[in-house]
Design a protein that fits this description.
Strand content: under 5%
Radius of gyration: 28 Å
Order of helices and strands: HHHHHHHHHHHHHHHH
Number of helices: 16
Number of strands: 0
Structural class: mainly alpha
Largest sheet: none
Shape: flat
Distance between the termini: 84 Å
Length: 332
């Protein structure tokens, strides 16, 4: 009898399921929000005339919140997923903006742990991913381009609100192929025509890139020095006729890479620390690599073993300055 009842129940359930499409998670939440309340019957026991209704925050299931993305899970950091549950996004951002440019060695590990922790987003988090952007900006100030790039890619860099940051970090790290491919396939990811021109050229669509450049120049959407930089990038034969523009005060990763592409690479010493990553791509000399690695090691953005490897790569070429440090390390 029990098996027959179970079979009948299964049959009834399957018939109902076939007649009615299953509810998605979001539909289910909507249904719960409109549930009817059955009034008590005459024989019902006495009830309280009022009840306490706790505040409940409902988040649609399946909607990933970029502010909660991290590279280090709770099992690694030892921090709870509710790390930010009592925090306000604006206050957290202000604290992140005040982080020192060169954190004390004793604090570095804690800073990186907090910046890369995977934890629930602050309760007032929105789709703008402001908290994620603040964490990425802090990592970039430290020169920690590689973890910042991994973080934005995990959050989904191929989204309009995150793409420009993704491309900037990829350009600094010399790994912009994926970001450019995404922009070429989905132009609305960025409102910046300079990015689209650069990425179209990388994809080999020089004609479309040139058309966009001419149109953007005519409309004033692109001005100097970007017009000249992009023109020289698209037509290298003009380099012999037109001198590279004077580097602007405001440097961007794209401008930096454009100067490099036209044969006028810029030094990174006077630029923000994140640009030092460009000297570790195998395109700079040994001295420039060591100086860049030292800058990054000062903030913990580069492993000490990698700096040691550069110190011991070969014999010092001269004496004084960086070469004295190389000789001292090799003498250990």
């Amino acid at each position: 009898m029990r098996s027959s009842s179970a079979f009948l129940a299964a049959l009834l359930w399957s018939g109902t399921a076939a007649a009615q499409a299953p509810l998605s998670a979001i539909d289910w939440l909507d249904e719960m929000g409109t549930a009817a309340v059955t009034p008590p019957g005459p024989d019902a026991p006495d009830t309280a005339d009022r009840i306490a209704r706790p505040d409940v925050t409902v988040t649609p299931l399946g909607a990933q919140r970029a502010d909660s993305v991290g590279l280090l899970p709770s099992t690694t950091t030892g921090l709870p997923r509710t790390l930010w549950e009592a925090s306000n996004t604006a206050i957290l951002i202000r604290y992140l903006e005040r982080l020192p440019e060169r954190p004390l060695p004793a604090m570095r590990a804690l800073y990186y742990t907090l910046l890369l922790a995977e934890a629930d987003a602050p309760p007032d988090s929105t789709g703008a991913a402001s908290f994620l952007h603040a964490r990425l900006a802090a990592l970039r100030r430290f020169g920690a381009v590689e973890p910042a790039l991994a973080l934005v890619e995990r959050a989904g860099g191929s989204r309009p609100g995150l793409f420009d940051t993704w491309l900037d970090l990829a350009l600094l790290d010399g790994r912009e192929d994926r970001a450019c491919a995404a922009l070429a396939a989905t132009p609305h990811l960025s409102d910046d025509p300079r990015s689209r021109i650069y990425c179209l050229a990388r994809a080999g669509d020089w004609q479309t890139a040139a058309l966009i450049l001419h149109g953007a120049e005519a409309s004033g959407a692109i001005t100097e020095p970007d017009v000249t930089l992009l023109a020289l990038h698209l037509e290298p034969e003009l380099i012999e006729e037109i001198a590279p523009p004077v580097p602007p005060t405001e440097m961007t990763p794209l401008r930096f890479r454009l100067y490099e592409s036209i044969g006028a690479p810029l030094g990174t010493h006077g630029l923000p620390r994140a640009y030092a990553m460009a000297d570790l791509r195998g395109t700079a000399g040994w001295k420039a690599e060591i100086v860049a690695a030292e800058r990054l090691a000062q903030t913990g953005a580069l492993a000490a073993t990698r700096l040691f490897g550069l110190y011991t790569a070969r014999k010092p070429a001269a004496s004084g300055g960086v070469w004295d440090r190389v000789a001292a390390v090799q003498a250990l």
